[in-house]
Amino acid sequence: MRLGVMQFSGDPQRRAAMQLKLTKRTVDGILAIECNGRIVFGDETSLLRDEVKKAIADNIKRIVLNLREVNYIDSGGLGTLVALHTTAHNSGATIKLANLTKRVGDLMQVTKLLTVFDVHNSEYDALESFRAAV
């Protein structure tokens, strides 16, 4: 299921496509969300937050965010990831990150968020870590 393909309304010269697309799939009861584009403050972070919070509300306890196609995260995006991690933890759910690009990985290291998140080299590895924990 592909989400986030929309355009802003208003002045035609100022219209721009949303810069984040999400593709969701469920594998063995684990929600995998592939993120493509930029995780930046605004509609992009709202889209990601809404999808993850909806999954948690639907009692999905295991979530993988595949960041392979994320080329940029701003401070609002980092804040959203941390808030989602906290929301998940407080609800008995777990969010794991997979496929960090070098740029995103470096950002996570500099901000010390690699110590907060469970990060895996691939989506497969993240899914397997959930399966092994059962």
Strands side by side in the biggest sheet: 1-2-3-4-5-6
**Shape by Cα distribution:** globular
Q: Residue share in helices?
A: 25-40%
- What is the terminal separation in angstroms? 27 Å
Give unreliable regions as ranges.
5-15
Biggest beta sheet attributes: 6 strands, mixed
Average per-residue pLDDT, rounded, comes to 89
**Radius of gyration from the alpha-carbon trace, in angstroms:** 15 Å
Residue share in β-strands: 25-35%
User: Care to count the β-strands?
Assistant: 6
Structural class, please?
alpha/beta
Element string (H = helix, E = strand): EEEHEHEHEH
Number of distinct helices: 4
Write a structural description.
- The protein is α/β, with parallel strands linked by helices and 134 residues long.
- 37% of the residues lie in helices and 30% in strands.
- The protein contains four helices and six strands, in the order βββαβαβαβα.
- It has helices at residues 43-57, 75-90, 102-110, 123-132, and strands spanning 2-3, 20-27, 30-39, 62-73, 94-98, 118-120.
- A six-stranded mixed sheet has the order 1-2-3-4-5-6.
- Helix 2 links the parallel strand 4 and strand 5.
- Helix 1 packs parallel to helix 2.
- The longest helix is centred in the middle third of the chain and has 16 residues, at 75-90.
- The chain is globular and about 35 Å long.
- The two termini are 27 Å apart.
- The model is unreliable at 5-15 (pLDDT under 50).
